[in-house]
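During the no-cost extension, the postdoctoral fellow (Dr. R.K.) reprocessed legacy sequence entries with the updated structure-token encoder. One reprocessed record is reproduced below for audit purposes.
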Amino acid sequence: MQALHRVPWGQTKERARAWGKLGLDAQARRRLERGPDADTIYGLMLEARRGKVIRHGITYANTGAKEWAIVHSVEGRTDHVDLVIDGKVARTCALRPLLRAMARAKL
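Re-encoded structure tokens follow.
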């Protein structure tokens, strides 16, 4: 009967890392050859729209005029918007709840 050839654990892990790196390098090379996919372009588009104004206006009241703007959120989730009143962020949330709250407040 022949004894099994045992490979030390550290050498096994080293070989696994080397083979894994070869696979990752090949995937990255193929990804570069293919060019950007739809998900990458969509993600870049979401990042590019941060801080852009969706709607702005001025609300007049007895106490004076308040300037407000709805902008795409600068920080946090890309599908959220910021309500900026007089240069200060008053609320950050999704667009529909913000519009409902503005309708109730008659802004």
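The first strand starts at residue 53 and ends at 61. The mean pLDDT is 86. The remaining legacy entries will be reprocessed before the final report is submitted.
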